[in-house]
Amino acid sequence: MRIIFYILQKEFRQIFRDKVMLPIILVMPMVQLLILSYTATFELKNTRISIIDHDRSQTSRDLVSKFSGSSFFSLISYESTYERGMEMIKEGKTDQLLIIEPGLEKKLGRGEKAGVMLITNAINGSAASLMNAYASSIVSDFNKLLVAETMPGIHSSGSLKTETRHWYNPRLNYQTYMVPGILVLLVTLIGMFLSGMNIVKEKELGTIEQINVTPIKKYQFMIGKLLPFWIIALFELLVGLVIARLVFGIAVEGSVALLIGTASVYLLVVLGIGILVSTVTDTMQQAMFISWFFIVIFILMSGLFTPVESMPLWAQRVNSLNPVAYFIQINRMIMLKGSGFNDISEHFYALVVYAIVMLTIAVSRYRKVA
Amino acid sequence: MEAADSKTVIRVRNLVKKFGSFVANDNLNFDVEKGEIFGFLGANGAGKTTAIKILCGLQKPTSGEIRVAGYDIYDQADQVKKNIGYMSQRFSLYEDLTVGENFQFYGGIYGLKAPVIRQRTTQLLDELGLTHIKNKILKEIPLGWKQKLAFSVALIHNPRIVFLDEPTGGVDPLTRRQFWEMIYSAAQKGITVFVTTHYMDEAEYCSRVSIMVDGRIEALDSPSGLKKHYRAESMNEVFVKLARSGKNSR
Prior knowledge:
The complex is a heterodimer. Helix content of chain A is about 65%, strand content about 5%. Chain A is built from 14 helices and four strands. The radius of gyration of chain A is 28 Å and the shape is elongated. Chain A starts with a helix and ends in a 5-residue tail after the last helix. Chain B is α/β, with parallel strands linked by helices. Helices cover about 35% and strands about 25% of the residues of chain B. Chain B contains nine helices and ten strands. Chain B has helices at about 50-55, 75-85, 100-110, 115-130, 145-155, 175-190, 200-205, 225-230, 235-245; strands spanning about 10-20, 20-35, 35-40, 65-70, 70, 85, 160-165, 190-195, 210-215, 215-220. A six-stranded mixed beta sheet of chain B has the order 6-7-8-3-9-10, sandwiched between helices. In chain B, strands 2-1-4-5 form a four-stranded antiparallel beta sheet, with helices on one face. In chain B, a hairpin with a 2-residue loop joins strand 1 (about 10-20) and strand 2 (about 20-35). Chain B is globular.
């Protein structure tokens, strides 16, 4: 116990004396939380649309005004020809092109079918389908309006009406969804990189030899190396939760204690991976690249940005080995749904097993004797 | 010979260390006695550092029977480690800690109690005449002082044997001299000093010297005995005569 205390004392002295690392450890995660939470969004606002109005009638102007009045669209330009419109899309000056065919009003007046054409830049497929959905809903609303005006006799009285309620995130706020995930990201980065780099740094400096020549036990060394970053990461999670509350207005629905408890176990997994990386590498450069390799895969597959459920089945299976995926789910459940222990117990036990396995491998891979 | 008398503190029999097909230590045999200053000489790549790391328990030998401080290095590694100090070729104190903090850390992980650490730190710094730099960050201190401090740190837990791997590399002649005074005073207190060096004048200061060539010990005797045997004026001459025969050194 005393030996572990001396390692802790030394680690904290070094961390707090490092004028470059200290601000990085404490400030960088908070900046990331603020920036990412505002920017990592799939919400579409201000879709740029250009209009080619071949009809130039009252009806076509009404339709256009529906678009310009919507908060999702901003009307960029009126073009005279199809070619000019496509030019705008090619040059990336507009996202969508709405073409209103000539004689629209007349056709409608005669009770004939008339149409508009919608051309969307679909390089980003999911954004394009959202734009299409928004645009189509405006057109169909407009259509209903027309029907009501021109044929007042027919009411949509007998039709089904769906009433929608959004639970857990009633205002469909993207930040509410992203912030818990980004918090996980931050503690993961801190845990994995700091712990891994720390031991490799001692290898590079040669100080690890001086430690290995003492009768210190492996577990004492490991605890001494794990604990500082475990404490720092938990502290940052707390600060992150405060920021989530004050800046984004996201309070933890569930129990904060449960959240911290699962975070503690989760961090053991992450720190274990970091230390495992450091035991199989000799330089900080090697450790950095290996850690990045895992972090990038873990994060992209974690469900932070894209739902795990829409990944192919093999990827979902791989994800059962992804600690980040577990903790993002747990964190969203506790923070947004107010889930209790019974709701998350399956994920929690998975993390416990994971932590035991990683730490065992890490400790056994660390060799005092070459 | 079998019943190792209590004066023998290091006993090496048939030590072999191979890295793949490369033989770093080829059947080493030697004894070191209590209070001796044992010089471990050899050209670069002769296998000195490998042997010293094996004796300190930092590397495993391929085969051989080795006892350090009376303990078997395979079965009683922790006992060995409690009784030895080690100062590596690479500087191994923490540059971002103060002198006192370095002593405290290393004393701490040797399992010493706080009052013992304080007392040893005061005593060792006092012997060095460096008490006034106790609160200085290490990187602000000249190299020669750091080397002396590293030696003191290796002594913090009162080891019976101290291993010094090229302790005076890159140090000025005056500091080198002071360093050897430290080695002498340690030996006088009964601490066995096992030291590797490239400086042949330093070899003259040793009680006994072994010279390694291509992983083997080619000569082992007191400096005067070696000079007599090789009909040489100085240890320098002895070394050059022996080292020239090695294939790695040509």
